[in-house]
Amino acid sequence: METYKISELAKEFDVTTRSIRFYEDEGLIQPDRKGTMRIYQRRDKIRLKLILRGKRLGFSLAEIRELFELYDTHQGEHQLTQMLNIIDEKEAVLKRQLEDINALLEDLSVAKKRCIEALGKQKTS
């Protein structure tokens, strides 16, 4: 069975060992212990990958924990339904943010055009 040290996982996923210990403290991963050394199994590595991906997609640690708990209790259909709900919520938030970003880009474009026009008028005067 393949095992990993905390430093190996930190290097592979480009995170700090402190971050990994934080996820452990939050109960999201549970390495075995050999004295003071943490020994991570394949399951922990997969969970760490899912945690980091979830965070990049805007999932909170509470949402990630909830999905892990649903998976651990083998509530497949319920888990998938819950995941769809979370995805729908995230999608709605991102669409609103995209609309805000597009509106801001348009405002910036108009402001830039006005500044360029004003500079042109000053140079010709």
TrEMBL record:
A Pfam family found in this protein is MerR_1
Q: What is the superkingdom listed in this entry's lineage? A: Bacteria
Task: State the coiled-coil residue ranges.
Answer: 87-114
Q: Which SUPFAM superfamilies does its entry note?
A: Putative DNA-binding domain
Question: SMART domains attached here?
Answer: HTH_MERR (SM00422)
Bilayer-spanning residue ranges: none
Q: Which GO terms describe its molecular function?
A: DNA binding; DNA-binding transcription factor activity
Give all residue intervals belonging to the HTH merR-type domain: 3-70
Question: InterPro entries, from UniProt?
Answer: DNA-bd_dom_put_sf, MerR-type_HTH_dom, MerR_fam
Q: Which UniProt keywords apply?
A: Coiled coil, DNA-binding
Which Gene3D superfamilies does the entry mention? 1.10.1660.10
Q: Does the keyword DNA-binding apply?
A: yes
* PROSITE patterns attached to this UniProt entry: HTH_MERR_2
- This protein's name: Mercuric resistance operon regulatory protein
Organism per entry: Vibrio thalassae
Q: Which gene encodes it?
A: merR
